[in-house]
Amino acid sequence: MFNLTTLVRPNILNLEPYSSARDEFSGTEGIFLDANENPYGNLNRYPDPFQKQLKQKLSEIKSVATENIFLGNGSDEIIDLCFRIFCEPGKDKALTFVPTYGMYEVSAAINNVELVTVNLDKTFQINMSEALPLLTDASLKLVFICSPNNPTANSIDAVEAIIQNFKGIVVVDEAYIDFSDRESLSQKIAQYPNLIVLQTLSKAWGLAAARVGMAFTNAAIVSFLNKVKPPYNISAPNQIAALATLEKTDEYDRQKETLLNERVIMIQQLRQLDYVRKIYPSDTNFILIEVTNADAVYNALTAQNIIIRNRNKVVKNCLRITIGRPHENAVLLTALQNIQP
Ligand SMILES: *Cc1c(COP(=O)(O)O)cnc(C)c1O
Protein backbone atom coordinates (compact mmCIF):
# COMPACT_ATOMS: atom_id res chain seq x y z
CA MET A 1 0.00 0.00 0.00
CA PHE A 2 0.96 3.66 0.37
CA ASN A 3 4.41 4.21 1.85
CA LEU A 4 5.51 7.82 2.18
CA THR A 5 9.15 7.15 3.07
CA THR A 6 9.73 5.21 -0.16
CA LEU A 7 8.20 8.09 -2.16
CA VAL A 8 10.30 10.89 -0.68
CA ARG A 9 13.72 11.41 -2.29
CA PRO A 10 16.46 9.97 -0.01
CA ASN A 11 18.29 13.34 0.22
CA ILE A 12 15.08 14.99 1.45
CA LEU A 13 14.35 12.14 3.86
CA ASN A 14 17.81 12.64 5.39
CA LEU A 15 17.79 16.43 5.19
CA GLU A 16 18.69 18.32 8.34
CA PRO A 17 16.61 21.48 7.81
CA TYR A 18 17.92 24.98 8.42
CA SER A 19 17.10 26.04 11.93
CA SER A 20 16.39 29.75 12.13
CA ALA A 21 16.62 31.93 15.23
CA ARG A 22 12.82 32.21 15.14
CA ASP A 23 12.48 28.42 15.20
CA GLU A 24 14.40 28.13 18.44
CA PHE A 25 12.54 30.90 20.22
CA SER A 26 9.24 32.11 18.85
CA GLY A 27 7.79 34.16 21.74
CA THR A 28 6.77 37.75 21.10
CA GLU A 29 7.87 39.23 24.45
CA GLY A 30 11.53 39.82 25.22
CA ILE A 31 14.75 41.38 24.07
CA PHE A 32 15.63 39.84 20.72
CA LEU A 33 19.35 39.71 20.12
CA ASP A 34 19.34 36.34 18.39
CA ALA A 35 18.76 36.95 14.66
CA ASN A 36 21.19 39.76 13.72
CA GLU A 37 18.23 42.01 12.93
CA ASN A 38 18.38 45.78 13.09
CA PRO A 39 16.53 46.75 16.29
CA TYR A 40 14.99 49.85 14.64
CA GLY A 41 12.08 50.11 12.22
CA ASN A 42 8.72 48.47 11.42
CA LEU A 43 9.75 45.66 9.10
CA ASN A 44 13.00 44.93 10.93
CA ARG A 45 12.02 41.53 12.36
CA TYR A 46 11.92 38.24 10.46
CA PRO A 47 8.37 36.96 9.97
CA ASP A 48 6.94 33.85 11.63
CA PRO A 49 8.40 31.00 9.50
CA PHE A 50 5.34 28.82 10.21
CA GLN A 51 2.67 31.54 9.88
CA LYS A 52 0.86 30.34 13.01
CA GLN A 53 -1.73 33.14 13.22
CA LEU A 54 -2.60 32.87 9.56
CA LYS A 55 -2.93 29.10 9.76
CA GLN A 56 -5.19 29.45 12.82
CA LYS A 57 -7.51 31.74 10.87
CA LEU A 58 -7.46 29.49 7.79
CA SER A 59 -8.12 26.48 9.98
CA GLU A 60 -11.40 28.07 11.15
CA ILE A 61 -12.47 29.10 7.65
CA LYS A 62 -11.49 25.85 5.90
CA SER A 63 -12.29 23.35 8.70
CA VAL A 64 -8.82 21.82 8.46
CA ALA A 65 -6.56 21.37 11.53
CA THR A 66 -3.53 23.70 11.61
CA GLU A 67 -1.15 20.68 11.60
CA ASN A 68 -2.62 19.73 8.21
CA ILE A 69 -1.98 23.14 6.64
CA PHE A 70 1.15 24.25 4.78
CA LEU A 71 1.43 27.76 3.34
CA GLY A 72 3.50 28.63 0.30
CA ASN A 73 4.50 31.79 -1.53
CA GLY A 74 1.54 31.21 -3.82
CA SER A 75 0.46 27.69 -4.78
CA ASP A 76 3.14 27.93 -7.44
CA GLU A 77 5.78 27.52 -4.72
CA ILE A 78 4.02 24.42 -3.40
CA ILE A 79 3.91 22.88 -6.89
CA ASP A 80 7.68 23.35 -7.11
CA LEU A 81 8.22 21.91 -3.62
CA CYS A 82 6.27 18.78 -4.60
CA PHE A 83 8.70 18.12 -7.45
CA ARG A 84 11.69 18.75 -5.19
CA ILE A 85 10.43 16.43 -2.45
CA PHE A 86 9.12 13.52 -4.52
CA CYS A 87 10.89 13.47 -7.91
CA GLU A 88 14.51 12.49 -8.48
CA PRO A 89 15.68 14.75 -11.37
CA GLY A 90 16.32 12.88 -14.61
CA LYS A 91 14.72 9.73 -13.21
CA ASP A 92 11.23 10.06 -11.75
CA LYS A 93 8.13 11.20 -13.63
CA ALA A 94 4.98 13.18 -13.03
CA LEU A 95 1.68 13.07 -14.91
CA THR A 96 -1.08 15.53 -15.67
CA PHE A 97 -4.18 15.83 -17.85
CA VAL A 98 -4.14 18.48 -20.57
CA PRO A 99 -5.11 21.14 -21.38
CA THR A 100 -4.41 22.39 -17.87
CA TYR A 101 -2.53 24.95 -15.78
CA GLY A 102 0.88 25.69 -17.32
CA MET A 103 2.91 25.72 -14.11
CA TYR A 104 3.03 21.92 -13.76
CA GLU A 105 4.95 21.72 -17.01
CA VAL A 106 7.27 24.65 -16.21
CA SER A 107 7.99 23.36 -12.72
CA ALA A 108 8.66 19.85 -14.06
CA ALA A 109 11.09 21.27 -16.64
CA ILE A 110 12.92 23.38 -14.04
CA ASN A 111 13.36 20.29 -11.89
CA ASN A 112 14.40 18.14 -14.87
CA VAL A 113 11.45 15.82 -14.31
CA GLU A 114 9.58 14.27 -17.23
CA LEU A 115 5.92 15.30 -17.25
CA VAL A 116 3.68 12.70 -18.94
CA THR A 117 0.58 14.36 -20.39
CA VAL A 118 -2.73 12.64 -21.10
CA ASN A 119 -5.38 14.43 -23.14
CA LEU A 120 -8.72 15.12 -21.51
CA ASP A 121 -11.62 13.84 -23.61
CA LYS A 122 -14.08 15.99 -25.64
CA THR A 123 -15.98 17.00 -22.49
CA PHE A 124 -12.65 17.72 -20.75
CA GLN A 125 -12.95 14.69 -18.47
CA ILE A 126 -10.36 12.02 -17.67
CA ASN A 127 -10.57 8.86 -19.78
CA MET A 128 -9.98 6.23 -17.05
CA SER A 129 -9.17 3.34 -19.38
CA GLU A 130 -6.35 5.46 -20.79
CA ALA A 131 -5.19 6.78 -17.40
CA LEU A 132 -5.27 3.62 -15.26
CA PRO A 133 -2.45 1.65 -17.00
CA LEU A 134 -0.14 4.69 -16.75
CA LEU A 135 -0.55 4.83 -12.96
CA THR A 136 1.33 1.57 -12.48
CA ASP A 137 4.67 2.96 -13.76
CA ALA A 138 7.08 2.62 -10.80
CA SER A 139 8.92 5.83 -11.71
CA LEU A 140 5.68 7.86 -11.63
CA LYS A 141 5.65 9.74 -8.33
CA LEU A 142 3.23 12.65 -8.79
CA VAL A 143 -0.10 13.20 -10.51
CA PHE A 144 -1.46 16.74 -10.87
CA ILE A 145 -5.20 17.20 -11.35
CA CYS A 146 -6.58 20.70 -11.61
CA SER A 147 -10.26 20.72 -10.62
CA PRO A 148 -12.06 22.92 -11.46
CA ASN A 149 -9.64 22.97 -14.35
CA ASN A 150 -7.90 25.93 -15.91
CA PRO A 151 -8.47 26.76 -18.82
CA THR A 152 -11.43 24.43 -19.45
CA ALA A 153 -13.45 25.74 -16.43
CA ASN A 154 -15.09 22.39 -15.58
CA SER A 155 -14.71 20.14 -12.54
CA ILE A 156 -13.09 16.75 -13.09
CA ASP A 157 -15.27 13.77 -12.13
CA ALA A 158 -12.60 11.06 -11.74
CA VAL A 159 -10.39 12.74 -9.12
CA GLU A 160 -11.12 10.26 -6.34
CA ALA A 161 -10.84 7.28 -8.69
CA ILE A 162 -7.31 8.43 -9.55
CA ILE A 163 -6.40 8.91 -5.88
CA GLN A 164 -7.67 5.43 -5.05
CA ASN A 165 -5.79 3.77 -7.91
CA PHE A 166 -2.38 5.40 -7.50
CA LYS A 167 0.34 4.55 -4.97
CA GLY A 168 2.13 7.87 -5.48
CA ILE A 169 1.09 11.41 -4.56
CA VAL A 170 -1.96 13.06 -6.11
CA VAL A 171 -1.94 16.87 -6.05
CA VAL A 172 -5.45 18.25 -6.58
CA ASP A 173 -5.26 21.94 -7.48
CA GLU A 174 -8.48 23.58 -6.28
CA ALA A 175 -7.55 27.20 -7.09
CA TYR A 176 -11.14 27.82 -8.30
CA ILE A 177 -13.08 25.70 -5.78
CA ASP A 178 -14.68 28.78 -4.17
CA PHE A 179 -16.62 29.40 -7.40
CA SER A 180 -17.89 25.81 -7.61
CA ASP A 181 -20.80 24.04 -5.91
CA ARG A 182 -18.69 20.91 -5.47
CA GLU A 183 -17.16 19.91 -2.15
CA SER A 184 -13.46 20.48 -1.62
CA LEU A 185 -11.38 17.33 -1.15
CA SER A 186 -9.76 19.04 1.86
CA GLN A 187 -12.18 17.13 4.10
CA LYS A 188 -10.83 13.79 2.81
CA ILE A 189 -7.13 14.16 3.60
CA ALA A 190 -7.45 11.72 6.54
CA GLN A 191 -9.04 9.15 4.23
CA TYR A 192 -6.37 9.54 1.51
CA PRO A 193 -2.76 9.63 2.80
CA ASN A 194 -1.48 10.27 -0.74
CA LEU A 195 -3.58 13.41 -1.27
CA ILE A 196 -2.37 17.01 -1.32
CA VAL A 197 -5.11 19.59 -1.91
CA LEU A 198 -3.96 23.01 -3.13
CA GLN A 199 -5.98 26.18 -2.70
CA THR A 200 -5.00 29.83 -2.98
CA LEU A 201 -5.93 33.31 -1.78
CA SER A 202 -5.15 34.61 -5.29
CA LYS A 203 -8.57 34.14 -6.87
CA ALA A 204 -11.82 34.35 -4.86
CA TRP A 205 -10.11 36.09 -1.93
CA GLY A 206 -8.66 38.77 -4.20
CA LEU A 207 -5.10 38.52 -2.88
CA ALA A 208 -3.05 37.59 -5.95
CA ALA A 209 -0.46 40.25 -5.03
CA ALA A 210 0.07 38.80 -1.53
CA ARG A 211 1.21 35.36 -2.78
CA VAL A 212 -0.42 32.98 -0.32
CA GLY A 213 -1.09 29.41 -1.41
CA MET A 214 -2.34 26.60 0.81
CA ALA A 215 -1.73 22.87 0.90
CA PHE A 216 -4.05 20.64 2.92
CA THR A 217 -2.51 17.24 3.56
CA ASN A 218 -1.44 14.82 6.28
CA ALA A 219 1.02 16.03 8.93
CA ALA A 220 3.89 13.86 7.59
CA ILE A 221 3.76 15.53 4.17
CA VAL A 222 3.39 18.95 5.86
CA SER A 223 6.65 18.27 7.71
CA PHE A 224 8.51 17.50 4.47
CA LEU A 225 7.14 20.69 2.90
CA ASN A 226 8.35 22.61 5.97
CA LYS A 227 11.81 21.03 5.73
CA VAL A 228 12.33 22.02 2.10
CA LYS A 229 10.76 25.49 1.93
CA PRO A 230 12.84 28.66 2.35
CA PRO A 231 12.54 29.53 6.07
CA TYR A 232 10.72 32.85 5.65
CA ASN A 233 8.72 32.05 2.53
CA ILE A 234 5.81 34.39 3.28
CA SER A 235 6.72 37.98 4.11
CA ALA A 236 5.33 39.75 7.18
CA PRO A 237 3.35 42.34 5.12
CA ASN A 238 1.79 39.50 3.13
CA GLN A 239 0.87 37.52 6.26
CA ILE A 240 -0.70 40.68 7.72
CA ALA A 241 -2.58 41.45 4.48
CA ALA A 242 -3.92 37.89 4.34
CA LEU A 243 -5.09 37.98 7.96
CA ALA A 244 -6.85 41.31 7.43
CA THR A 245 -8.63 40.07 4.29
CA LEU A 246 -9.69 36.79 5.90
CA GLU A 247 -11.52 38.85 8.56
CA LYS A 248 -13.70 40.42 5.89
CA THR A 249 -15.85 37.42 5.05
CA ASP A 250 -18.86 39.66 4.22
CA GLU A 251 -16.88 41.31 1.46
CA TYR A 252 -15.67 37.92 0.22
CA ASP A 253 -19.29 36.67 0.06
CA ARG A 254 -20.52 39.82 -1.68
CA GLN A 255 -17.76 39.79 -4.29
CA LYS A 256 -18.29 36.13 -4.99
CA GLU A 257 -22.03 36.61 -5.42
CA THR A 258 -21.44 39.51 -7.81
CA LEU A 259 -18.94 37.50 -9.85
CA LEU A 260 -21.27 34.48 -10.05
CA ASN A 261 -24.17 36.74 -11.16
CA GLU A 262 -21.94 38.37 -13.73
CA ARG A 263 -20.97 34.92 -15.00
CA VAL A 264 -24.65 34.18 -15.70
CA ILE A 265 -25.12 37.52 -17.52
CA MET A 266 -21.93 37.03 -19.52
CA ILE A 267 -23.01 33.56 -20.67
CA GLN A 268 -26.49 34.86 -21.65
CA GLN A 269 -24.96 37.70 -23.69
CA LEU A 270 -22.27 35.55 -25.31
CA ARG A 271 -25.02 33.19 -26.54
CA GLN A 272 -26.39 36.02 -28.67
CA LEU A 273 -23.20 36.31 -30.73
CA ASP A 274 -23.33 34.30 -33.95
CA TYR A 275 -19.54 33.79 -34.14
CA VAL A 276 -19.53 32.13 -30.69
CA ARG A 277 -19.72 28.42 -31.44
CA LYS A 278 -19.57 27.03 -27.97
CA ILE A 279 -19.65 28.20 -24.36
CA TYR A 280 -18.19 25.63 -22.02
CA PRO A 281 -19.82 25.16 -18.59
CA SER A 282 -17.93 26.98 -15.83
CA ASP A 283 -17.25 26.15 -12.18
CA THR A 284 -14.79 29.07 -12.06
CA ASN A 285 -14.52 32.87 -12.36
CA PHE A 286 -13.79 32.60 -16.08
CA ILE A 287 -15.48 31.29 -19.20
CA LEU A 288 -13.96 29.31 -22.04
CA ILE A 289 -15.60 29.95 -25.41
CA GLU A 290 -14.99 28.63 -28.89
CA VAL A 291 -15.35 31.15 -31.70
CA THR A 292 -14.99 30.95 -35.49
CA ASN A 293 -11.64 32.79 -35.42
CA ALA A 294 -10.03 33.23 -31.99
CA ASP A 295 -7.02 35.21 -33.22
CA ALA A 296 -9.26 37.75 -34.99
CA VAL A 297 -11.46 38.29 -31.92
CA TYR A 298 -8.45 38.48 -29.62
CA ASN A 299 -6.66 41.01 -31.83
CA ALA A 300 -9.76 43.18 -32.25
CA LEU A 301 -10.18 43.34 -28.46
CA THR A 302 -6.50 44.00 -27.78
CA ALA A 303 -6.64 46.94 -30.22
CA GLN A 304 -9.28 48.42 -27.88
CA ASN A 305 -7.18 47.72 -24.77
CA ILE A 306 -9.44 44.89 -23.68
CA ILE A 307 -7.24 41.97 -22.73
CA ILE A 308 -8.55 38.42 -22.60
CA ARG A 309 -6.57 35.18 -22.92
CA ASN A 310 -6.12 33.64 -26.35
CA ARG A 311 -6.02 29.85 -25.85
CA ASN A 312 -6.12 29.07 -29.58
CA LYS A 313 -2.83 27.19 -29.37
CA VAL A 314 -4.10 25.08 -26.45
CA VAL A 315 -7.73 24.49 -27.42
CA LYS A 316 -8.44 25.32 -31.08
CA ASN A 317 -10.19 28.68 -31.52
CA CYS A 318 -10.84 29.07 -27.82
CA LEU A 319 -10.71 32.22 -25.72
CA ARG A 320 -10.65 32.48 -21.94
CA ILE A 321 -12.53 35.40 -20.44
CA THR A 322 -12.10 36.31 -16.76
CA ILE A 323 -15.21 37.73 -15.09
CA GLY A 324 -14.40 41.31 -14.10
CA ARG A 325 -16.39 44.12 -12.52
CA PRO A 326 -19.90 44.66 -13.98
CA HIS A 327 -18.74 47.76 -15.87
CA GLU A 328 -15.72 45.93 -17.32
CA ASN A 329 -17.86 43.01 -18.43
CA ALA A 330 -20.33 45.40 -20.08
CA VAL A 331 -17.51 47.12 -22.01
CA LEU A 332 -16.23 43.72 -23.18
CA LEU A 333 -19.70 42.60 -24.31
CA THR A 334 -20.29 45.83 -26.24
CA ALA A 335 -16.94 45.40 -27.96
CA LEU A 336 -17.74 41.76 -28.79
CA GLN A 337 -21.12 42.82 -30.25
CA ASN A 338 -19.33 45.23 -32.59
CA ILE A 339 -16.79 42.74 -33.91
CA GLN A 340 -17.30 40.92 -37.22
CA PRO A 341 -14.56 38.32 -37.27
C1 LIG B 1 -4.31 30.98 -10.61
C2 LIG B 1 -3.97 29.57 -10.34
C3 LIG B 1 -3.20 29.23 -9.23
C4 LIG B 1 -2.75 30.29 -8.29
O1 LIG B 1 -1.44 30.26 -8.02
P1 LIG B 1 -0.86 31.21 -6.88
O2 LIG B 1 0.59 30.94 -7.01
O3 LIG B 1 -1.45 30.75 -5.58
O4 LIG B 1 -1.25 32.61 -7.22
C5 LIG B 1 -2.93 27.90 -8.99
N1 LIG B 1 -3.41 26.94 -9.80
C6 LIG B 1 -4.19 27.25 -10.85
C7 LIG B 1 -4.76 26.17 -11.67
C8 LIG B 1 -4.47 28.57 -11.16
O5 LIG B 1 -5.22 28.85 -12.24
TrEMBL record:
<dbReference type="Pfam" id="PF00155">
    <property type="entry name" value="Aminotran_1_2"/>
</dbReference>
<comment type="subunit">
    <text>Homodimer.</text>
</comment>
<dbReference type="InterPro" id="IPR015421">
    <property type="entry name" value="PyrdxlP-dep_Trfase_major"/>
</dbReference>
<comment type="similarity">
    <text>Belongs to the class-II pyridoxal-phosphate-dependent aminotransferase family. Histidinol-phosphate aminotransferase subfamily.</text>
</comment>
<keyword id="KW-0032">Aminotransferase</keyword>
<dbReference type="GO" id="GO:0004400">
    <property type="term" value="F:histidinol-phosphate transaminase activity"/>
</dbReference>
<comment type="pathway">
    <text>Amino-acid biosynthesis; L-histidine biosynthesis; L-histidine from 5-phospho-alpha-D-ribose 1-diphosphate: step 7/9.</text>
</comment>
<dbReference type="InterPro" id="IPR004839">
    <property type="entry name" value="Aminotransferase_I/II_large"/>
</dbReference>
<dbReference type="InterPro" id="IPR015422">
    <property type="entry name" value="PyrdxlP-dep_Trfase_small"/>
</dbReference>
<keyword id="KW-0663">Pyridoxal phosphate</keyword>
<comment type="pathway">
    <text>Lipid metabolism.</text>
</comment>
<protein>
    <recommendedName>
        <fullName>Histidinol-phosphate aminotransferase</fullName>
        <ecNumber>2.6.1.9</ecNumber>
    </recommendedName>
</protein>
<feature type="domain" description="Aminotransferase class I/classII large">
    <location>
        <begin position="41"/>
        <end position="335"/>
    </location>
</feature>
<dbReference type="InterPro" id="IPR001917">
    <property type="entry name" value="Aminotrans_II_pyridoxalP_BS"/>
</dbReference>
<keyword id="KW-0368">Histidine biosynthesis</keyword>
<dbReference type="InterPro" id="IPR015424">
    <property type="entry name" value="PyrdxlP-dep_Trfase"/>
</dbReference>
<dbReference type="GO" id="GO:0000105">
    <property type="term" value="P:L-histidine biosynthetic process"/>
</dbReference>
<dbReference type="GO" id="GO:0030170">
    <property type="term" value="F:pyridoxal phosphate binding"/>
</dbReference>
<keyword id="KW-0028">Amino-acid biosynthesis</keyword>
<dbReference type="InterPro" id="IPR005861">
    <property type="entry name" value="HisP_aminotrans"/>
</dbReference>
<feature type="modified residue" description="N6-(pyridoxal phosphate)lysine">
    <location>
        <position position="203"/>
    </location>
</feature>
<keyword id="KW-0808">Transferase</keyword>
